[in-house]
Amino acid sequence: MKKKLLKVSAFLLALSLINGVSPDSALISRDMETIYAVSESDNLQKYETEYYELQYSVSGKEAVIKKLLYNEEYLEKNVGDGYEMPVLPELVIPEKIDGYTVTGIDDFAMRRARYDKLILPDTLRSIGSSSLGAFSFRRIPDVFSLPESLETIGSNIFEYNYPEKIVIPASVNSIECQPFNGTEVREIIISEGNTHFCMDNGALMTSDGTRLIMFLDSYSGKVGEYQVPEGVKQIDSCAFMKCRLSGVLLPESLEDIGESAFSESYIEKITIPSKVKTIKNRTFFECRSLTDVNLNSVETVEEWAFSSCFTIVSIDFGSRLKKIGENGFSAAFDLKNKNSEILIPETVTDIGTGAFGIFIGCAFKVDENNKNYASRDGIIYNKDFSRIIQCPENNKITDFVVPETVKSIGKYAFSGVSSLEKIELPDSLDEIEDYAFMDCDNLKSVTIPKSITRINDYAFWSCDRLSEIILQEGLESIGIRAFDNTAVTELNLPKSLKEIGEEAFYNCTELEKVTLYPELRNVHYCAFFMDADISYVRDAEQTAVADGVLFSKDMTVLLSFPVTRMNYNGLEYTVPDSVKEIAAGAFEGSAVTRVNIPDSVEKIGDGAFRNCISLLNISFGSTSVNMGKDVFN
């Protein structure tokens, strides 16, 4: 179980990055924020200080800060930590710049700035999202008062290192979702006279009681279980994110819950009120204490909504659920809960890709009146049994024969089914989707039918005991990491194969021999394990092999150099003195870095070194070589 959770965590992190949740990776430079760069067409003006330069736009008599750049001299003398910028002794935004009154700081304007002291002007009316950077660790103030002139506060105005107390002035009338980090700020003080916002037992709310903006985690230990007040219609995105409350009771007045509202929180149970129709993207993502869920009248569960909720043991989908989005419940449900069933109601019309993917521990049962889906032996199919959608992790099958009706095996369909030792795939099968058999620990043998033209990315990734892989004629493409980290020892690749993706067999440490046809040239240089012996299917009467390279029988024509042959230090190859001709495409796509060509070579064919992206040097023994077309294209 521990091994699987570690794999899932790493895997989901990778998916999160692919789906756009990425760390700040901009290199330290004078241009602090390359991700949110401002176009020169904005006609920005500049204000320079000893340590930094402020770029700003003007409208009438007012100025808005758009960007902060460190002075090059200051950067040279001061070194930051890793990707962090060096700490400024103080960051002062003046009230006026060249006669213009500073009234705003734009989104991301000073996102990566670091400072010991921050002074904002009393003329400021708006602070944009992620705009203020962060205090240094050594100078986080206990209390930070926002300017009395401020009207608008964006989301996450500081990157991190929030003051323990933040004072919101009476002038503020607009606050975006998650204005502050609720796990760092201990107290929010609303100034007397502010008629727009109030605090309710740790929750920042609008004064009319209809919107809950955020909850301070410092109150979790005091209240344990929090009752959202009746009258609240909207809970903002990230409002309870990472909070340590054991429970949140939602009122019947609630109509909308924002994205990631409860993600990574410690709540144990949740009942969704009847007016809420959609559970949005990542709303309950990684709630790893959540055991009981009642969706009530929910109609749509969006992407990743309950993903990585490993502890769910009971779920009521309600009577109106229509759609479960991509990865909606991936890596959810308690793996120990072996005897329970997940009941898919008849109202469900759309189950997204991987909706129940990755180590689902419960069997599935689809309502027999459902017009779009069906179940058999705990496995979800579409209604006509032409596609397998999900097989539960706890299924006890060892040998499974895929029905002849099946044309497609869906994403994550058999992921983590550890009992599975052998799978028999029918000739009717057209597609094996990404991650379809990922982490089937005991799968030992698979034969890919002739009907399959492509094996998709990660299809059999991390099947630790998969030692026999039979690939048949008709197969044209093998995707990224399709068989990575398997136990295969020998591969015979079909003549129809045209492409092998990155690391398709790379971590197959027991792979000793690969036999392929010389026509196969589109092979990623990291496709195979380094120590694998690459050889060719050839006509022994007309060809010869020396050092893994294919030649004519008399060794006068070099026909094909293995595209997969490489090592960590690059590859230098010396063409034998017997060779008079290097055939067209002979080195195409290979990882060779240096080639020594003897003076015996008289001709080099078309595209002989085409797409050799690692090639650094070629030495010729003769200058009178007949070159074909696009030899080095």
Explain this structure to me?
It is built from three helices and 57 strands. It has 633 residues and is mainly beta. Strands 1, 2, 3, 6, 7, 10, 13 and 15 form an eight-stranded mixed β-sheet that branches. Strands 49-50-51-53-55-57 form a six-stranded mixed β-sheet, with no helix packed on it. The protein has a five-stranded mixed β-sheet with strand order 17-18-19-21-23, with no helix packed on it. The two termini are 51 Å apart. Mean pLDDT is 87; it is low at 1-6 and 8-41.
Comma- or semicolon-separated keywords:
3 helices; 4% helix; disordered N terminus; 57 strands; mainly beta; six-stranded mixed beta sheet; flat; eight-stranded mixed beta sheet; single chain; 633 residues
Structure summarized in a few sentences:
The protein has 633 residues and is mainly beta. The chain is flat.
Sheet-strand content, in percent, reads: 25-35%
Low-confidence regions:
1-6, 8-41
Count of helices?
3
Give the overall shape, derived from the CA principal axes: flat
Q: Estimate the mean pLDDT confidence.
A: 87
- Proportion in helices: under 10%
Structural class category: mainly beta
